[in-house]
Amino acid sequence: MNRRALSETNLFLSSKRYSSATQLSMLSSSKSLERLDTPQISEEEAFSIELQRFYERKVRTGREKALENKLLAFTAAMKVLINAQLVNERFTITELVQRNPRYCEIRELEANCFEFEIPVYLDGNYELLVHYAEEGGFVRLQIEDCSNWDDCVTEEGYLSASLVRSNLQLTLQKTLINMSKNIENEEDNLPDGVESISVFCDGSTIVLDINHGGILVDLVPSIRLTKYHIGWCKKFTRHIVPTHVLAKACERPMSDPESLWLLSFVEAEKKMLRQLKDNQQRLLDILVELREMDELLGEISFAQMQTVLFHLVSKIEDGFEWRDEELGERFLDALCILEEFLEKKYCEHFYISEANLFVAMGTVTMSQLKDKIRRITKPSCVACGLASIFGATSVVKCGFKGACA
Questions:
Q1: Which of 258, 247, 259, 228 lies closest to 91, judged by CA?
Q2: Which end of the chain is more exposed for a tag (fewer CB within 10 A), N or C?
């Protein structure tokens, strides 16, 4: 797809927004950074230079710290799960072991907060029927001939996600008690870097607390689906079938919330992340770090930022448009997509168009976010846009003496 075609889809900002797309997207050299305080540099150049400075100063170290936390979270969660299957055979690591588990099995929610799927074991020659729910992206599971979960089946015959979560919570509490006794008796020990592990509930979410709140891991019961179970799903998705269902509570249920399971496309997401080009990954890192450092942007979840990038990458596939000198423009394109979602109050799930990722976000918050994004991309106020991202650390000052505020 060429640049003209893309501009007609309103993905690109109008050419009036910048005097030079090349200047706007220029990644700085050390010489460019030295020019930042000189009057000759344009605001467009300053925007790209500031963005590069932000990546080198903040993003790189922030992502390294998040990866360090992720490794520790995975190690601790696996340690607990290995012990949990000794307490309750309903939860097992067999499926994980078959996949040769690595830290990528755990999903980032925040730099120090993650999500880990706990496999649910279904015994016997069970029969599982998947029914699509009116809540976009959710299903109900009708299960038969599965004796070890009989006590978690509703009167309508659906497997209760709520009861499965409760069962996991009790299992983890018993597991940690046993682990504590074993450690006291010097029969076991915590992984390196882990000083303490506890579990608590945040609403309907089971949370593993590592190192007294230093790292948090949401533990979510998960059931793997087969193609036999979900062949029907292609008519609702982008011909990418989900691989799992998760016992995650629906934030805005229209009907019985107890039996709702969330469709998971984690395998497809991991594949797409692996296929990202260097600058596409860099852009995602920048977007994620921005929400880590800004309280208002922090209202946008990691999954929502990732969805914005996925939509952008799917619309701009040409690698030529992802060169180093184009990164600044792609950054603004991503903000434009986000602004459009906020305007519509609808963040379209990348794989299920009828699933709105903004369903639980308040209208006031969406309005505030939309205003903030517009201040960043406002054509006459690049300096104030920079200040709204980087605060007082930005060396570029508003040329309109605050008149654009």
A1: 247
A2: C
Identify the CATH number of the domain in which residue 84 sits: 3.30.460.90
User: What confidence tens digit (pLDDT) does each residue in 224-250 have?
Assistant: 887 666 666 665 666 677 888 999 999
Average pLDDT of span 351-363:
91
Between 71-75, 93-97, 166-170, 399-403, the lowest mean confidence (pLDDT) is in 399-403
Structural domain includes residue 159: yes
Count of domains observed in the chain: 2
Q: Is residue 404 part of a domain?
A: no
Residue 368 token pair: 């505030």
Do residue 217 and residue 87 come from a single domain? yes
Which residues make beta-bridge pairs with 356?
348
Q: Does the pLDDT of residue 393 top 60, yes or no? A: no
Which tokens sit at 209?
Answer: 């607390």
Picking from 253, 230, 243, the residue whose alpha carbon sits closest to that of residue 134 is: 253
User: In terms of residue numbers, what domain contains 380?
Assistant: 276-390
Cα 238 to chain centroid distance, Å, stands at 19
* CA 245/CA 242 separation, integer angstroms: 8
Q: Show Cβ contacts of residue 38 under 8 Å, excluding neighbours closer than 6 positions.
A: none
Q: Is 104 strand, coil or helix?
A: helix
Q: Are 91 and 122 in contact (CB under 8 A)?
A: no
Which tokens sit at 214? 């230093």
Which H or E run contains 289? helix 278-293
Same domain, 153 and 287: no
260 membership: H or E segment, kind and range: strand 260-264
- Return the amino acid letter for 55: Y
3-state secondary structure of 163: helix
pTM for this model (two decimals): 0.82
Give buried/exposed letters for 202-216 (b at 16+ CB in 10 A, else e).
eebbbbbbbbeeebb
User: Which of these three, 220, 242, 265, is where a domain ends?
Assistant: 265
For 161, residues 6+ apart whose C-beta sits below 8 A from its C-beta are: 221, 247, 248, 249, 258, 259, 260, 261
Q: Which residue, 385, 386, 381, 373, is CA-closest to 399? A: 381
Task: Please report whether residue 196 resides in a domain.
Answer: yes
| Cα–Cα distance for residue pair 131/138, rounded to 1 Å | 9
